[in-house]
Design goal:
The chain has 391 residues and is an alpha+beta fold. It is built from twelve helices and ten strands. The protein has helices at 7-23, 26-33, 40-52, 71-83, 91-104, 107-118, 233-247, 251-267, 280-306, 316-338, 355-366, 377-388; strands at residues 124-127, 143-147, 150-157, 168-174, 185-191, 197-202, 211-222, 226-227, 269-271, 274-275. Strands 1-4-5-8 form a four-stranded mixed β-sheet. Strands 2-3-7-6 form a four-stranded antiparallel β-sheet, with no helix packed on it. Helix 5 (91-104) runs antiparallel to helix 7 and helix 10 (316-338) runs antiparallel to helix 12 (377-388). The protein is globular, with a radius of gyration of 22 Å.
């Protein structure tokens, strides 16, 4: 089955393709292609190039930099960006806090933050998960106590992705401990240079420094930095996580990675003029993944088309669940294709081994996280059972 585009949408796709492959620095795109970590400067430069062309936050309201595109065109934009190895607009800015401020923030917060958020002049971090409040996010314990025109915040957040780069952090805090746990939560915007904020690195299994702990000790936050109403942030968090779950099913990137795997399989000789791609088990495995990705792509289009009025479609949980499973399946396939060479993950760039074999295992290990962030897959199964299947 193939998705056919109209002449107008095909022309739009070609414009996106030309822009992404000519305007984003090749060095940055090469780093994405080779699974290397990007610097803060590369993230910022890429997003600012996109924003200058009106391509950083197309899902936002038009008055704040969005585009009046059809759901299909937003999908094409996303797909072509991933195909071209372009760093996606920083999710914390573009897909998380930006839409929340646009939907629920005061006019003052919108004017103060949205333009800088779209241009990555402010790098946002996410302050949701805690050591005892991950999938059960409503159990969070970080407290914010009102003291005149300020809140005093104490507590700890964990798994703060790229928090070492953060300028501000959007943070869920408990403001009312006397009501049921979902009802007493508020969202504060906290300057990470405030006295009492400390960021501590967490080293991951692949050796990288991608996530952090963030500690708050008597941090004073102006009341004007409250998003929406006090004790109503559970609604805002659900809105944000619904958007995040659509974004964590990167169909285009997974298709791109699978296409690379197919090329690499064709490059590995098995003797007598054959390659791994000629192996029926390998080719069948690739074909099955291609079919699964097509089904996921169609589901993604359906979710986007029905996510109206700021309420993400319940099937966004399906995208999160299946999308992350397929991400992991493709990284596992690449490790299998690399074979024993995948064990040489510590080899330098001057190694005689192909770069993709040296990065196969670290990438595989890193993507174990995909089952957890954005709401663990176990929680998504519960959401699907209740909301979609009515069980």
């Amino acid at each position: 089955m193939q998705l056919a585009l109209s002449a107008e949408d095909a022309e739009f796709r070609d414009r996106m393709r030309e822009f992404f492959t000519t305007k984003i620095p090749q060095e940055t795109r090469d780093a994405v292609a080779e699974r290397r970590e990007l610097s803060r400067e590369q993230y910022v430069e890429s997003m600012q190039i996109l924003n200058a062309a009106g391509l950083a936050v197309p899902n936002w309201p038009v008055e704040w930099g969005g585009q009046d595109w059809s759901p299909l065109r937003r999908h094409i934009w996303h797909e072509e960006m991933q195909h071209a190895f372009v760093p996606q607009p920083l999710a914390f800015n573009a897909s998380m806090i930006g839409p929340v401020i646009a939907q629920f923030g005061s006019q003052e917060l919108k004017e103060r933050f949205l333009a800088k958020t779209a241009n990555l002049d402010i790098w946002w971090s996410q302050g949701f998960s805690e050591p005892d409040a991950g999938s059960d996010l409503a159990s969070l314990k970080t407290r914010a106590v009102r003291d005149g025109d300020e809140y005093v915040v104490n507590g700890q957040k964990t798994w703060t992705t790229l928090g070492q780069y953060g300028d501000w952090i959007f943070t869920l805090v408990r403001t009312n401990p006397e009501v049921k746990k979902q009802a007493g939560i508020s969202m504060l915007l906290i300057d990470m240079t405030s006295p009492g904020v400390e960021v501590r690195p967490i080293e991951l299994i692949d050796g990288g420094h991608e996530v952090n702990e963030v500690w708050f000790t008597d941090v004073r936050v102006p009341v004007e930095n409250l998003v929406g109403e006090e004790d109503r942030a559970w609604d805002y968090a659900k809105f944000l996580l619904g958007n995040e779950r659509v974004g964590v099913a990167p169909v285009g990137a997974t298709k791109r990675n699978l296409a690379q795997a197919k090329e690499w399989a064709a490059s590995v000789s098995t003797g007598e003029g054959t390659t791994l791609l000629d192996d029926p088990l390998v080719s069948t495995r690739i074909a099955e993944l291609e079919n699964e990705l097509l089904a996921l792509e169609l589901t993604a289009l359906r979710v986007v088309a029905h996510s109206a009025d700021g309420k993400p479609h319940p099937a966004s949980s399906v995208l999160k669940l299946r999308g992350t499973e397929l991400q992991q399946a493709v990284t596992e396939l690449i490790v299998d294709l690399a074979g024993p060479a995948s064990l040489a993950s510590g080899a330098g760039d001057d190694s005689a081994l192909p770069w993709w074999t040296r990065r196969a295992t670290p990438t595989y290990l890193n993507f174990r996280k995909a089952s957890i962030y954005g709401g663990s897959n176990e929680v998504q199964r519960q959401i699907i059972a209740r909301t979609i299947l009515g069980l």
